[in-house]
């Protein structure tokens, strides 16, 4: 009897081994399937991200194009009539004076009465501009910002003198500082 039990136990163990092998094989197969599913999911996610990025980029580009199409360029304003003043030659208000030669044109909207007034008041306007320029140092005339400020200052002082209209712009036809 003891021998029969050993044989039965051995047979049972041999029968369990293929079942364990089958279970281990099934476990390995399911693990490979999981890895393949993860890889497929990652690839799908990458394609979705690329697709969404493409759609967003296309939408942004269309919006930018529409904004550019919506911009309407305004035509430039018509040129102003101008009154040329004589040249101004001055020395700067510095310890070491510099020479400056400035030629000015006054821009205004076409107006016959204002043109006549500008001709009549030329000596007064020259006086005002000379006073303004004599107070300037080399540093006050050296940069673009200072030149624009000088033009605005001249325009404001000349407009105080005028009754028939106003000067819109002051143009420097010549602006030399040595």
Quick gist of this model?
This protein has helices spanning 2-70, 112-120, 122-134, 144-161, and strands at residues 81-84, 88-91, 99-108, 169-177. It is of the alpha+beta class and 178 residues long. The chain has four helices and four strands; from the N terminus they run H-E-E-E-H-H-H-E.
Structural features, described:
By secondary structure, the chain is α+β, with helices and mostly antiparallel strands. It has helices at 2-70, 112-120, 122-134, 144-161, and strands spanning 81-84, 88-91, 99-108, 169-177. The protein has 2 domains: 1-73; 81-177, Band 7 domain (Tetrahydropterin Synthase, Chain A, 2-Layer Sandwich). Helices cover 61% and strands 15% of the residues. Strands 1, 2, 3 and 4 form a 4-stranded antiparallel β-sheet that branches. A hairpin with a 7-residue loop joins strand 2 and strand 3 (99-108). It is elongated, with a radius of gyration of 46 Å. The model has no long low-confidence stretch (mean pLDDT 86).
Identify low-pLDDT runs: none
CATH architecture of the largest domain: 2-Layer Sandwich
Q: In oligomeric terms, what are we looking at?
A: single chain
Reported for the largest beta sheet, the result is: 4 strands, antiparallel
Total count of domains:
2
So, the CATH homologous superfamily of the largest domain?
Band 7 domain
pLDDT average, as an integer?
A: 86
**Structure class:** alpha+beta
Find the CATH topology of the largest domain: Tetrahydropterin Synthase, Chain A
The level-1 CATH class of the largest domain: Alpha Beta
- Helical proportion, percent range: 55-70%
As a whole number of angstroms, the C-alpha radius of gyration is: 46 Å
Q: Beta-sheet strand percentage?
A: 15-25%
Extended strand count:
4
Tell me the overall shape.
elongated
């Amino acid at each position: 009897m003891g021998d029969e039990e050993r044989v039965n136990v051995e047979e049972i163990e041999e029968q369990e081994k293929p079942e364990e092998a089958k279970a281990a094989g099934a476990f390995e197969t399911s693990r490979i399937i999981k890895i393949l599913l993860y890889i497929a999911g990652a690839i799908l996610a990458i394609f979705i991200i690329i697709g969404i990025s493409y759609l967003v980029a296309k939408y942004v580009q269309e919006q930018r194009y529409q904004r550019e199409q919506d911009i309407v360029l305004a035509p430039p304003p018509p040129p102003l009539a101008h009154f040329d003043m004589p040249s101004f030659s001055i020395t700067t208000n510095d310890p070491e004076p510099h020479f400056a030669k400035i030629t000015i044109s006054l821009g205004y909207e076409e107006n016959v009465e204002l043109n006549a007034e500008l001709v009549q008041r030329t000596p007064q306007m020259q006086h005002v501009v000379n006073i303004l320029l004599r107070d300037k140092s080399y540093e006050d005339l050296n940069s673009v910002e200072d030149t624009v400020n000088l033009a605005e200052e001249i325009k404001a002082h000349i407009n105080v003198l005028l009754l028939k209209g106003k000067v819109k712009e002051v143009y420097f036809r010549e602006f030399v500082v040595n």
